[in-house]
Write a structure and sequence with these properties.
By secondary structure, the protein is α/β, with parallel strands linked by helices. The chain is built from 9 helices and 9 strands. The longest helix is centred in the middle third of the chain and has 21 residues.
């Protein structure tokens, strides 16, 4: 189990270099932060796609990893989720040890590129009613599965130097599956020394709250012709647009609506209080990949602006430590 986590770790902050712009009032203001994250971090092609987006834009991302993606199906009996049968997961496992090993390589490469790896627990269960002890058991399994993953998947000789220190000390953030929280979770996060939680929802962009374990809340943002608020996450857009039933976005309407919502939410903060804007996606493509395409277009524009910092949650906390 983790007993201590530090924000001062080796993942480098991204350095943005863009053409000079005319001086103006906005340059004297604090930067606008944009925090983009991915839940689950399973499919290998989405690892490649997200890292390519970061390379194009200079952005850092936070990957909230589900640890079952590091467990081959043949080894699933080694995972014991709270209140569930041994070897059960709501999101499956790696199909093979080879697949899990490739994912380990993606994680280590992303870390080297300055991205943050954080926890999404393991089997993607609704833990809203779990006790602190049950959550800590889940956290413990995440830690041990992550630490032992190279050996467990038959590639122990390829384990990078520093991997076990990374697994022990660098997983400082958490997001609950289904954004389902409870007092047991909050107690467990504090007891296990997490630096932040990103599981809650707010009516709009909001500053993190709390001191022991600061809580970041995904914001509700106006969306669509009637500007009805929706959580700034692909799944919620998916439910809004197609009732959660997969549809190909042939006319581009879903993509354009998502992009417009992201841009409007950013514009409001750029001309307002500059509260960090958080956007969450999954590695699962929904409605033909409409929300990934919208995010890519958003990031390619926003993250190229010199007064916008597209960073991980951990980097944001490091850069703003002591503010306010």
């Amino acid at each position: 189990m983790h007993s201590c986590r530090s924000l001062c770790l080796s993942a480098a902050a991204c350095v943005l270099a863009f053409p000079a712009v005319a001086a103006g009032p906005a340059q004297a203001r604090s930067p606008q932060y944009v925090l983009i994250s991915f839940d689950g971090a399973g499919p290998l092609e989405q690892w490649d796609r997200s890292r390519a987006l970061a390379d194009r834009t200079g952005a850092q991302f936070t990957y909230f990893l589900s640890c079952v993606y590091l467990v081959a199906r043949e080894n699933r009996a080694g995972y014991q989720p709270p209140r569930q049968e041994i070897g059960r997961s709501n999101v499956g496992f790696a199909q093979t040890r080879e697949e899990a090993a490739q994912r380990l390589g993606q994680i280590w490469s992303a870390r080297a590129e300055g991205h943050e790896i954080a926890s999404h627990a393991c089997g993607h269960f609704d833990g809203g009613e779990w006790t602190a002890a049950e959550w800590r058991a889940e956290f413990g399994q995440f830690s041990s599965i992550l630490a032992d993953a190279w050996v467990a998947n038959g590639v122990g000789s390829d384990e990078p130097a520093g991997w076990r220190d990374f697994a022990k000390d660098e997983i400082v953030g958490f997001r609950a599956p289904y954004l389902s929280t409870g007092q047991g979770l909050f107690d467990a996060l504090a007891q296990d020394g997490f630096a932040y939680d990103a599981s809650t929802v707010s009516r709009g962009p909001a500053m993190p709250e709390g001191t022991t374990v600061p809580r970041f809340a995904l914001p509700m943002i106006p969306e669509g012709p009637s500007a009805r608020p929706v959580i700034a996450m692909d799944y919620n857009l998916f439910v809004r647009h197609s009732g959660g039933i997969e549809r190909d976005d042939r006319d581009g309407v879903f993509e354009e609506r998502a992009l417009s919502a992201f841009r409007a939410a950013l514009d409001e903060q750029m001309t307002g209080d500059r509260v960090p804007l958080q956007i969450g996606l999954h590695f699962t493509l929904m409605n033909g990949g409409a929300y990934w395409r919208a995010l890519e277009r958003f990031a390619e524009d926003a993250c190229a602006q010199p007064d916008i910092r597209c960073v991980s949650y951990r980097t944001y906390m490091t850069e703003t430590a002591g503010d306010g």
